[in-house]
Design a protein that fits this description.
Blueprint lengths: L7 E5 L10 H9 L3 E5 L8 H14 L5 E6 L1 H9 L10 E4 L7 H7 L4 H5 L3 H6 L10 E6 L6 H4 L22 E5 L10 H13 L5
Keywords: Hydrolase
InterPro entries: AB_hydrolase_1, AB_hydrolase_fold
GO molecular function: hydrolase activity
């Protein structure tokens, strides 16, 4: 009997990062049986629309089978924007600490010296986020509540946050599932618990209680 064809997963890094930041998650998902791909983009110098269109092309290239997308922080927002139309292969999306309804840290940076340069072309998207998710794909959000990071020093993140993004900033109408883990914003990328929950959602459309 032939082994089942592995399902494709695209990983998107966040602001100020490169694809290698997702290396540990890449390895864990690969070991869990997925066929994993990195998607790199310029998060500061280039407009988000450029990354969104490139991402849509990459997803189409991996057709005709399902293509899942996992995005950390800004990467999760871009994943939703790229997949909100229904002309792409089926699949699910997992966002890791993405400020889907706007980032208090980003708004704080905007009013600080050099903030516009630090956020670059992604500033408006990070500041305001989205209104809701009404695309066809099921979307799961993993938020963190280990407050290790400098985000709280530049913006209001709420009572629970991962050091960069508040838990409430990760909530958005239309999400299929939301869970909160004991991890920081960057710690999500190396967390075995996060990787396990990502794999469960990609396969089942839910998180493991």
């Amino acid at each position: 009997m032939n082994a089942p064809t592995p399902i494709d997963v695209l990983l998107l890094h966040g602001l100020w990062m490169r694809g290698f930041a997702m290396a540990m998650l890449h390895r864990r998902l690969r070991d869990d049986g997925f066929r994993v791909h990195q998607f790199e983009y310029m998060s500061v110098a280039a407009p988000p629309e450029q990354a969104i269109e490139r991402l849509r092309r990459r997803i189409r290239q991996l057709a005709p089978g399902p293509v899942h997308v996992v995005g950390h922080s800004l990467g999760g927002i871009l994943a939703l924007l790229a997949c909100r139309d229904d002309d792409l292969p089926v699949g699910r999306i997992v966002c890791l600490g993405s400020p889907l309804n706007g980032s208090g840290a980003a708004r704080g940076l905007t009013h600080s010296w050099g903030g516009d340069m630090l956020l670059g072309r992604s500033r408006e998207l990070l500041e305001h986020g989205l209104e809701r998710w009404d695309g066809q794909r099921e979307v799961g959000m993993i938020a963190g509540r280990q407050p290790m990071g400098l985000g709280a020093l530049v913006g209001e993140l709420g009572d629970q946050h991962d050091g960069t993004v508040g838990v409430e900033e990760t909530r958005l109408p239309g999400l299929a599932a939301h869970c909160v883990l004991e991890t920081s914003h960057t710690g999500m990328l190396v967390s075995a618990d996060v990787a396990r929950q990502v794999a469960v959602f990609l396969r089942e459309g839910r998180f493991d209680a």
